[in-house]
Amino acid sequence: MGSLLGSQKSREIVFQALVLSVVAALLVAMVMNTRASLEAQSLTTGFGFLERSTGWDFSFSVLPYSISDTYSKTILIGILNTLLLGFLGIFLATLIGIAIGLIRTSKNVLFSFLGTVYVETFRNVPLILQALFWYAILTHLPRPRSALSLGDAVFLSGRGLYFPVFNIALWSVAVMLAIFIAWLFFLPWLREQMNHSSAYHSIKKIGWLMLPVIMILIGYYARIPDTPLLDMPALKGLNFKGGMRMPPELSALVIAIALYGGAYIGEVVRAGLMSVPKGQIEAAFVNGLKPIHIFSRIRLPLAIRAVLPSLTNQYVQLMKATTIGIVIGFSDLFMIISTSINQSGQTLELLAILMGSFLVINLSIAFVMNSINEKIAIKGYEVKS
Amino acid sequence: MTASTYQLPPQSSFSRKVKDNFFASPFDCLVTLACAVFFVAIFYYIIDWAFIASIWSSEDEPLCKEASGACWSVIDARHRIIFFGLFPFEEHWRSTLACVVMVATIVASCVPWFWSTLKLSALWIIGFGIFYFLMAGGVFGLTVITPERWGGLALTIFIFAAVSIIGMPLSIVLALGRRSKLPVIAMLFGLFIDFFRSLPLLTILFTAAVITPFLLPGWLQGDKLYRVIAGFAIFFACYQAENIRAGLQAIPPGQDEAGLTLGLTYMQRVTRIQLPQAFRNSLPAIVNQFVITFKETSIVTIVGFFEILASGSAAFGTGKWTVYYIEVYVFIGAIYFIFVFSLSRYGAYLERKLRVGHG
Amino acid sequence: MVDQIESVETEHSAVNSQVTPAVTMENVNKWFDDFHVLKDINLHVADGEKVVVCGPSGSGKSTLIRCICKLEDHQRGTINVLGTELNDNVANIDEIRREVGMVFQQFNLFPHMTVLENCTLALTLVRKKSRKEAEAIAMGFLEKVRIPEQSTKYPGELSGGQQQRVAIARSLCMNPKILLFDEPTSALDPEMISEVLDVMVALAEEGMTMVCVTHEMGFARRVADRVIFMDEGEIVEQNSPQAFFDNPTNERTRLFLSQILQH
Q: Which domains does chain A possess?
């Protein structure tokens, strides 16, 4: 024993082993305690409940749904809802953020002040409050009978936004998305293989032209038989039938996340634009490039590379922010899990599913962004600016 | 051979400055004009809605339906709920005083005179203690009021202060732990931090409120409020720990080596050399984390606390006030805006001041 | 001795009056806020002339040549480049920038583009050449600076000397009439300085008009038609290289030369 604690090294190892065992013991104790409490309340454990049907309904779903669907399907719908909300919000927030970033780096003082006002307004008020605000406004819109309409095809009312949608099978949309994403990853790989040659540029041009053609062909093939091309919403009785409905819960959240996220992303974009070394701009200037070219070929690409890590962080935060949907009744993953916990009592399992899902989503976002980061990273070990 | 001549620069005239910033090119003139029109229009509309055409007193509520402006009568009538929740009416002076004390504490923390570990800790312990006893009562003959009755802005401030006072020391411990030389310790701390950082705050609060009763034995249970504060504090500490860690990493390794050669112990090196420099390095991020936390206190409304958002919904939720949700939301938004904007402006001021001194 | 200097100066002015000056600066004054950085600068650079500017740091030599390509604005005086006056008129800026090239101390190559793309960017966007044409022109200049095999590499993968040579090729692609150099070798490790100087000497021998801020006195002796010494914002002395190095007339020039030729 004396020799075990003799050297510094062995003391450290013993100490760490001790700490590990204490932590392990704590975790085991928690699990056992949980088991005991659950048994005391005669609740079952295990994931068997996933095959039971839920027996309850909720407000929004991307997939067709009924009350008798199983818990596993319900949870899947929750995940899809969260992803849909997240992607819509992040996409719009990015667009707004780029615009705000550009506005704030403008030389016109009044114009950049406009951007500052926007950022301060939307950044300093909690997201929940903004969501509640937009939800209150959207639900106080006129009833379907007196809905606002755009060209008799798009209708906005207190019940939601109705718009026409193509009558094509759902799987084809997934296929189109997959093809598009695969193409985006294929291009940089091809550029490496073909060593930036002119042949690569020709292939790139042809590919971009062919892409919409392929999409249209897939859409045509996947048409639902015996239906018109477009499913138009029409007022029948008190409500609209047909078309796709975007409920005010979803719209309010998308608007809130887009505006709030846009303010944060705007700051990130502005930092990126300002971080481009002045020497690069000067070299481009002296080389004879026009201001628009200096911006699009030098400043913007370098800013994007500088901005990617911060952007990843923002995206992860925005995806996590979708959980506030419960406060206005949007059936995102969190709301579905908490309702499930209420209804089925399978607290620990559902919580594990919730945490696991968010871990997977966040890791995926980080993974995708890091891959993009690596692909476009500035090469070299001696980068002098 | 010419002697060095010193001439004064030509004064760039005010009109020249104006031209460069606002009217540099024809397109620029257009943009300036459009922005000016936009600003004036928005300003006019807001002033009109909020002040000119608005109704202020709660007795004048019937006039609200005709008026085109804001109906601040709802605030006049219901502001007590928004500020104090369900706190007993007679004791509102305690709640007000407590809020004032807490705000004073926060403001005092920003004054550099307080910036030593001893003074800051003393300040916050005293400030928070006064706040707690004013709200909870039980001493000096004040009636006892349990936390379930706390609400509104007072509850928001309480949660924020409690999370800060618990989370800040915890974040330092976590940051140091993650940088430990012992790989197992560093890994455990790292897992802990990464785990809590990857989850949405709501999940953690929800778990703390609903689940932990299962995980912990009976004697470790606390009031729901304290469980939620504990969870929130852990979340805050994990984020703050990363900010502190970034500050620690920015210190040149030579600093710690110098401390070693002088014979300083680990605690001395950490408290005298590393932490002061780490805080100076990442002060903007640290202040920013407080700002974010204040905004995030709004999330506790989902786990069933009657903080300011919930009390706001209650304020317009009954009777004749239901249509005046915009006024209430704007009012609450303004309260948040004042707090958050001041804190973040202060953070920007700190950043400028420190950068100048640091060089 | 004074007569010798005067005769050299009259020789220069005789040459100047026959050919259109490439650059003319008259009574140019510039301030950075309150700091008077250029004081009554009078300078004429003839077509095909090679001028070296030297002086202690802070003397304003970089600012001088940055004014010539309008990276900085001057508050008083006139600058004429290739017959066009530099002022706030937007239209003439584009033309000037195409005819005047600049090589920076920090190279300033675009890090996200290959060497070839760095050179062809302005050719395709500004001179509207097709990609094939631009690449041919660029490869020609890359061969001239003896670095054609690196055309598909990124700047970060090259050494400092290689990067600076690419920067010179990039400027040459636009076919400038004047080339400005702002301490082109100051950021290089010693063993790479000569490869860059060799390129600059070759350019000089082909007749390029050059204004070069540098501490490389050997280069100045070999290539310059005129050496200018600047101190505290003024041109203190200018002369042919022999007269300048062997017989500096001004006390400050002598002090400066004794400091840098000592090592």
A: 71-145+247-376 (1.10.3720.10)
